[in-house]
Design goal:
By secondary structure, this protein is of the alpha+beta class. The protein is 65% helix and 8% strand. It starts with a helix and ends in an 11-residue tail after the last helix.
Length: 661
């Protein structure tokens, strides 16, 4: 790196890309190894303190231990300072002689090279015994140490260079003071390059990474569209495990948990309907004598959810690896990841999900929405830890149903329908959808602008097509409104709701109702949290509510900030439970950037646990709205439910059926 800098200073005209590549490669390797040394030293230091504080050691031994720890601390500081000095001197010198395009191409060439990947993998391997000591010491369920280490190495071999590329590009543009249009163009290019790599890593490793990819694919308001479009295939198109392997798990579970023979219970066992992070679903047919076992009344056609072998141990180790990615590249995500881990580790017992289905079904049966939605009935007598047998709901994903309706309006052209929906989605993502209302354009005119003359619609058909499009827009709004009402009822009145309502879990059934599936992440709110949350959302839902009143409701819920600033606390409430209007108005690309802006003024120092998954549900619905071409404000939709919950607290309930409490 120093050689490159000296050569540029002495003779700029003779400087070539090979020197830049060597310099950037050395710079990246130094940063990675410095990070590995620092992380490993910290873990080792903590380990030695814990080990020696719990043993009766003599004063001389303790002095020796602390002396070793002081040496480690000095090494860590030296490594960090070396990396920072190289970063400063190299980047400043390179910035004077190279354009951002040259830097981006050079950096891309370097990170795609084997040395860069090997450097990342080696750094991860050197720190792995310290970062994941439990996994390194022994594997659960017979999984070997080698497999856990291999997964970590594969992850960092592909993701490490991407992190370096993004970080280096950001530093470069900051030092060059690149204008906004150059920054935007550069980021768009990087997203397009690295999104397919991210998807390939997810499909190769599966496990936790599939679940995270599914969550991100539903956040069109949060993630770059290149990643959203790539990760959309994870909603229900993850390559399944072999059917024979799933059938063997079902055979084993039936024999061990119920003492039943597979061939006596099932008439047929079909191919996988869909595969996800934890398990996959197969269609099956029960034999007549088992079609009403244990009071089950869902019919002989069932869906069997089968857990992948060894998935729980795989998730535990993946969480540790991804937590370090958060520390390196995604600051602020670690608390959210910890809450997600706490909730997701409850998904590895399908008997819990069967009980959650029963609870939600009972609550919804006594709600105003019982004729508008369906939730599958579990056959609890056949369920076990690794197998869930439930009623089969026939239908298609809601997003696919909307696309099919639009394609029928456009004379059966599905490609054209996808193009229209994607363009509309991008407009919502940018926050410029409101311009349509100001200019009073019809939906027909809007589509004509998008696709030009490709629609081949005659002038005499214009009125009919416009009416059909208006009907489709109303249908989409009604479906989203129903979903918000149902989940609002579950959160504020029942205190028991699905914490993972991503688009792949919402079906349009053949009977016309909506089917809600996958209740592995059910959350329960205590009475105090439920009413405190109702106060926040009720205040947000009213127009003109003073910020001080919203801030007081947030404090009562359990939010705390450093400076107790009413305005910032109220803006956090809007971000968590309302809409992205303020973020879009201030031109922040993602909620995370807007949250960092707010935290820079008055950081939130405590977020109640109950708020995390409700906020996540709000974010998922806003992202779903973007995918379905609708702009949503969850607080407005939920305010009536919140007010009703507060009113019911003043009058005793006549029928205590809400099992969430």
């Amino acid at each position: 790196s120093s050689c490159c800098v000296d050569k540029m200073r002495l003779n700029p005209s003779s400087f070539n890309k090979s020197f830049a590549r060597r310099g950037i490669l050395l710079f990246g390797i130094t940063l990675l190894f410095a990070g590995g040394i620092e992380a490993g030293a910290r873990k080792y230091q903590h380990y030695r303190v814990l080990r020696n504080d719990n043993l009766p050691l003599s004063g001389d031994v303790k002095t020796d231990v602390w002396f070793q720890m002081e040496n480690i601390r000095r090494i860590r500081i030296l490594a960090k300072n070396t990396a920072l000095n190289m970063s400063l001197s190299s980047c400043k010198s390179f910035a004077k002689f190279m354009s951002i395009n040259v830097v981006s191409k050079t950096c891309l060439t370097v990170i795609r090279s084997k040395p860069a990947g090997i450097a990342c993998a080696t750094a991860a391997a050197s720190a792995y015994p310290y970062l994941c000591p439990k996994a390194h010491a022994s594997g659960k369920r017979g999984r070997s140490n080698a497999e856990n280490i291999k997964r970590a190495l594969v992850f960092w071999r592909h993701i490490g260079p991407i992190v370096v590329h993004y970080r280096f590009t950001q530093v470069w543009m900051n030092m060059n003071e690149s204008p906004p249009e150059v920054r935007k163009r550069t980021w768009e290019k990087l997203h397009g390059i690295h999104a397919p790599t991210g998807l390939s890593v997810i499909l190769k490793l599966r496990g936790l990474y599939v679940k995270i990819g599914q969550v991100l694919s539903a956040r069109a308001d949060f993630m770059p569209l290149q990643y959203v479009n790539c990760f959309m295939t994870l909603q229900d198109s993850v390559p399944p495990w072999p059917t024979k392997e799933a059938e063997n798990i079902v055979r084993e579970e039936l024999q061990m948990s119920q003492g039943l023979n597979f061939d006596d219970v099932f008439e047929s066992f079909g191919e996988a309907l869909g595969s996800a992070s934890i398990g996959q679903v197969h269609r099956a047919v029960l034999k007549p004598q088992y079609s009403n076992i244990g009071g089950y009344s869902g019919g002989r056609n069932v869906a069997i959810k089968v857990m992948h072998a060894g998935v729980e141990d795989r998730f535990l180790n993946d969480f540790k690896v991804f937590r370090w990615l958060c520390r390196v590249a995604l600051p602020g995500w670690e608390p959210i990841l910890l809450e997600l881990q706490k909730q997701m580790m409850t998904e590895f017992d399908y008997k819990n999900e069967a009980e959650s289905l029963k609870t939600i079904r009972l609550n919804m049966a006594r709600s105003p929405y019982t004729d508008k939605i369906r939730i599958p009935e579990p056959a609890t007598s056949l369920c076990s830890k690794n197998m869930l047998v439930m009623e089969m709901l026939e239908g298609k994903k809601l997003a696919v149903a909307i696309e099919d309706r639009l394609s029928r309006i456009l004379n059966g052209n599905k490609d054209l329908a996808r193009k229209v929906l994607k363009t509309k989605q991008q407009a919502l993502f940018r926050g410029d959808d409101s311009g349509r209302r100001k200019e009073k354009k019809t939906l027909f005119h809007e589509i004509n602008q998008i696709v030009g003359d490709e629609t081949n619609i005659r002038a005499t058909q214009k009125i009919i097509k416009t009416l059909q499009l208006i009907s489709l827009a109303k249908y989409t709004r009604d479906r989203l409104s129903l979903l918000l009402d149902v989940h609002g009822h579950q959160i504020f009145l029942d205190g028991c709701f699905n914490g993972d309502p991503h688009p792949g879990n919402i079906l349009e059934l053949d009977c016309g109702r909506l089917g809600l599936i996958d209740y592995g992440q059910v959350r329960r709110l205590g009475k105090r949290d439920r009413l405190a949350l109702s106060g926040v959302v009720a205040a947000l839902g009213k127009d003109g509510t003073p910020q001080s009143e919203i801030a007081d409701s947030m404090r009562e819920f359990g939010f705390q900030s450093r400076d107790n600033n009413d305005e910032i606390i109220a803006k956090n409430a809007e971000l968590y439970f309302g809409s992205d209007a303020a973020r879009i108005k201030l031109d922040y690309a993602t909620p995370q950037m807007y949250l960092q802006h707010l935290n820079g003024i008055d950081p939130i120092i405590h977020v109640p646990d109950a708020a995390v998954f409700v906020a996540r549900t709000s974010f998922l619905f806003r992202g779903m709205g973007s995918l379905l071409q609708q702009q949503l404000c969850t607080a407005k939709s939920w305010s009536k439910m919140a007010e009703l919950a507060l009113k019911e607290e003043c009058t005793p309930a006549q029928e205590p059926y809400r099992l969430g409490l």
